[in-house]
Amino acid sequence: MTTTLSASLLAWLRCFEAAARHHSFTRAAGELCVTQGAVSQQVKHLEQWLGRPLFVRTPRALVPTPEGERLRVVLRDSFQAIEGALGQLRRRGEMGPVSLSCSPSFAMRWLTPRLGSFFRDHADIGLRVQGEFQALDRGRMLREGIDAAVRFDPGAYRDVHARRFLDEWLLPVASPAFVAAHPELRSPADLRGELLLHDASPWDGAGEFDEWGAWLAQAGVTVPDLAQGQRFNLSQLAIGAALAGQGVAMGRTALVLEDLQAGRLVDLFGLHLPSQAAYYFVSAHGQSPEVAAIESWLEAEGARFRAARTLWLTRAAAPGKRRRPPPRRPR
Q1: Nearest-angstrom CA–CA distance, 87 and 317
Q2: Which one, of 67, 79, 11, 93, lies nearest residue 285 by Cα?
Q3: Count of CA atoms in the C-beta half-sphere (13 A) of 203
Q4: Cβ–Cβ < 8 Å for 128, 99
Q5: Are the C-beta atoms of 107 and 255 separated by less than 8 Å?
Q6: Are 239 and 255 in contact (CB under 8 A)?
Q7: Do residues 135 and 204 make contact, with C-beta atoms less than 8 angstroms apart?
Q8: Closest CA relative to residue 285, chosen from 76, 78, 80, 74
Q9: What pLDDT was estimated at residue 156?
Q10: How many CA atoms lie within 13 A of 50 on its CB side?
Q11: Secondary structure of the chain in the HEC alphabet?
């Protein structure tokens, strides 16, 4: 028996897919810009047409039945394929640049200095970089025309293509002038809250002191007045304050390695912690040739950076290569 995909049936399926993905009629209605009652009624029409329930309606959430789950998966894949094909066709017709949404600090300190090599190899690809760190999902990327993105976070993406192309390590850094002015900082136990510089938003949903807290836990140190330090909403700002001699920032290697190599910053203790967050390349439209080229380039640049970082961190942690603490001042 052939089923005709009428306009009504397509509307029912779209409402069902959104409700199943969100486990809520209300959240589905918000995404589709209709009322909660309209979504509920459309799903009811679909259930009546199929002659079977698609949800178990509980007080806390919608739970797809086995048949509903099967339909949800099919619709998810189908809608993603349609949206991807439409997005590629639209972009080819417009011939505009690829829109790359990127974590601001990473864009400023890692990505931008390397873009010259990308344009040398891909002179035919236009690229528009936008600095932002808000969370992404397929719906938002499609609505706002975001072709691809780079995010620093723990991952766990579900409805988009996401590939980790660079991991991250954390280490406290300060300027040589600050180190000289604070000879008492000989070990992690000497840190005080008022000396610390915080990126209060390391990734969407993170706590203000997550990075410092994780590093201090590995060091076996407690800083009771941790909240007394300066707070910034970008890692770039905290690093800038460290470069200016204002305190100790929690450095991410992708953002501070060149400053460490040049001597503008100092690795205080030679204690390096792998971060729970990493850099992910995210796309929702499917792999157009342009988006695939950007992903491949980022993967290659990430590999080159990892090699340089491993060499530097190995040397920094070697005996005799760590920062020698300045002698204590005579009392």
Answers
A1: 48
A2: 79
A3: 20
A4: yes
A5: no
A6: yes
A7: yes
A8: 80
A9: 83
A10: 17
A11: CCCCCCHHHHHHHHHHHHHHHHCCHHHHHHHHCCCHHHHHHHHHHHHHHHCCCCEEECCCCEEECHHHHHHHHHHHHHHHHHHHHHHHHHHHHHCCCEEEEECHHHHHHHHHHHHHHHHHHCCCCCEEEEECCCCCCHHHHHHHCCCEEEEEECCCCCCCEEEEEECCEEEEEECHHHHHHCCCCCCHHHCCHHHEEEECCCCCCCCCCHHHHHHHHHHCCCCCCHHHCEEECCHHHHHHHHHCCCCEEEEEHHHHHHHHHHCCCEECCCCCEECCCEEEEEECCCCCHHHHHHHHHHHHHHHHHHHHHHHHHHHHHCCCCCCCCCCCCCC
In the numeric block, which tokens belong to residue 244? 């200016």
Amino acid identity of 134? Q
**For 48-73, how does the pLDDT look when each residue is reduced to its tens digit (9 = 90+)?**
999 999 999 888 889 999 999 999 98
Structure tokens at 104: 């601001």
Q: How do residues 96-107 score in pLDDT, each as one tens digit? A: 788 899 999 999
pLDDT digits (tens, 9 = 90+) for 236-283: 999 999 999 999 999 999 999 999 999 999 999 999 999 999 999 999
How far apart CA 5 and CA 27 sit, in angstroms, is 25
Closest CA to 271 of 188, 327, 195: 188
Distance separating alpha carbons of residues 319 and 309, to the nearest angstrom = 18
Burial of 10 from C-beta contacts in 10 A (0-12 / 13-18 / 19+): exposed
What is the residue type of 49? W
pTM over 0.85? The answer is no
- For residues 82 and 111, is the Cβ–Cβ distance under 8 A? no
Question: Which amino acid makes up residue 54?
Answer: L
